[in-house]
Amino acid sequence: MGEVLGRVLVVDDDDVIRQLIAVNLTLEGFQVDTASDGQDCLDRVLDVMPDVITLDVMMPRLDGWMTATRLRDNEGTSHIKVVLITARAQEDDKRRGLGIGVDAYLTKPFDPAELIQVVRELALTARSGRGKA
Questions:
Q1: Does position 86 have pLDDT exceeding 90, yes or no?
Q2: pTM, full prediction
Q3: Terminal-to-terminal C-alpha distance of the chain
Q4: CA-CA to 123 of 20 to 30 Å: which in 30, 36, 103, 113?
């Protein structure tokens, strides 16, 4: 078995999309955990401690905007790389995501190969930055 490329927390309220992302990343060598919405993500993130979080925007209980904001505002999670994956493709939405401090913004429908490449690059960056003050 090959080396694990990184740990990813996949957050989406749509079971099919969540599993599609999880399977694609697992096949590429990532260790994957899943969460069904933003609150589930926040409840689990410190136990999982992923290198990267893929995060849907439109979700019940706690949307992706607020989840990303809370991740960035928490000292224990502010370093985690965040990829927003959303059907919201307007420039204002992209600016909002970048303003929150997300690391990447992909629109649905997304290309699985592009998602894998983005997650791979962010995981590599996250892992190479560990141990540095």
A1: no
A2: 0.92
A3: 32
A4: 36
Rounded Cα–Cα distance for residues 28 and 8 (Å): 12
Residue 122 has pLDDT above 80, yes or no: yes
Whole-number Å distance between alpha carbons of 54 and 104: 9
d(CA 78, CA 26): 24
Counting every residue, how long is the chain?
133
The DSSP annotation for 65-101 comes to HHHHHHHHHSTTTTTSEEEEEES---HHHHHHHHHHT
Amino acid at 29: G
Q: Is the dihedral of CA 91, 93, 94, 98 positive or negative?
A: positive
